[in-house]
Amino acid sequence: MNDQERTLRQLPEHLVVHQHAEQALHEHRRMLVTLLSNLPGMAYRCHNDPDWTMEFVSEGCRELTGYPPDDLIASHRIAYGKIIHPADRKPVWQQVQDALSQHEPFQLSYRIITNEGEERWVSEQGRGVFDDQGQLTALEGFISDITERRQTDELLRLSEARYRAIVEDQTDLVCRFLPNGTLTFVNEAYCRYFGHPSEEVLSTSFIPMVPKEDWDYVMAQMAACNADHPVNTYQHRVIRPDGAVCWVQWTDRAILDEDNALIELQSVGRDITEQRQAEQTLRDSEARYRRIIETAQEGVWQIDADHCTTFVNARMAEMLGYAVEEMQGKSIFAFVDEAQWNTAMSHEVGQHDLKFRRKDGGELWAMISTNSIRDGQGGFAGVLAMVADITDRKRMEETLRRLATQDSLTGLFNRRYFFAVAKREFQRSQRYGHSLALLLLDIDYFKRINDAYGHRAGDQVLRTIAEIMRGGLRQVDIPCRYGGEEFVMLLPETPLDTAIAVAQRLGATLAETPIPTEKGPLPVTVSIGVAGMTNGEGLTLDLLLERADQAMYTAKQAGRNRVQVWRSDAQLSFAGT
Length: 577
Known about the structure:
Number of strands: 21
Helix content: 25-40%
Shape: flat
Number of domains: 4
Number of helices: 21
Strand order of the largest sheet: 17-18-16-19-20-21
Low-confidence stretches: 570-577
Mean pLDDT: 85
CATH superfamily of the largest domain: Reverse transcriptase/Diguanylate cyclase domain
CATH class of the largest domain: Alpha Beta
Radius of gyration: 31 Å
CATH topology of the largest domain: Alpha-Beta Plaits
């Protein structure tokens, strides 16, 4: 056998070995990608330039920054350097350059601004990659979220809840868009459903994905969402990538500016094509078992005329944490409030949101579609209900409501929501000639507290003052964090003398009660301006605020730690202890 024949005989063996090596390399690459995707942070490789232009980022960047990897790679949508907080960009650059000049690893902490506008603290560990000639070719490292070390538990809980509700493991379609339909945010479920990556749909209108005959209806529903009607639920058809026309139910929530002008809408959608088909089938069909079979992908519940369960499918039992056998024969009122159920059943056919009790004591929010069952004589024989779990949607709606109305640090009303509520209360007081008072409170020398003891101590002071305010007010009073260290309190049906007493009591309590912080108890005083309205006099809310602000400013000028009352004929001061 010559060399050529031996080579030919060995060639298959070499090919097999090469194939095995390629398979092993592919498996190793897959394992590495899986590992990086599941790490709680962002692995990266980037250029050493002020934009930190990314060559690679792991999937963890989505959770860390709110941007998908494609947005950051090659600064496609945004450069990582632009995500770094403006005040931290120069120190970050300098620290990294110092480490690279010594060929040493670097470790630093700084703030970033996420895609949602949230400020986060991150920790970055990395090193320079140098070639054989010692020339720097790239930076590689890992960035993780350390916000929990920097913020209070409450801020972290709200941040995580908001993120989970909107992005993490979300199966509903979530998007944000301008009033003209231009998309500004879409989640992964939205991209999967419509068959386009986010970079293809952002900054484009979603209207072309709606059949033309539905355009006017959809635009009218969008226009119906405003300050007076901030939440709107409706259904319309959409065109899927394969040309199929499906139905989606959307719940739009208005995002307003400080003047209650609509700036964006956030929408949560769920495909209800099968549900609508099931409802049509239920209307057209008289065969109970056919309806059950055709809609078995949803929870199915049949109740007789005495409200007892005669049938549930496995999905319905699973939703409530029971075995099918455990639910048979039980009254519907073992699972849902009787008044809620009776209200829903007051309509022959309909769709309703109901709260059910699970076996483990938890709650299940469900959207139920009901049809009455008639006997041979046309008499009422019971109800057939199709049940869809909307618990996640309800939680998200509650989270969005809380974020839209509360100040995240103190838990008081935020400024925008305060104006919405205060304007209604102000108009009611004017309409019926009721008295009304407004207190504007400013913490004395608050900047000194931040400068001397740090912002964490300052935040503790703000939260404690908010708690003391709540404890000294009635349920009907409207407290708000007005901005920075300023708070405002609207006291409906309160004469001026009573409001003065409330302000004096609050000022005295704060002056006499050092506020506990991580730096120890801190003495704090406040200056409070008071203004009132009686007999529906011709004021505006803005003018009342201006008067309280003038009184508060006078209290500051008079030495602080006092209550100052705005009056057209006289002024009253209180000097705190």
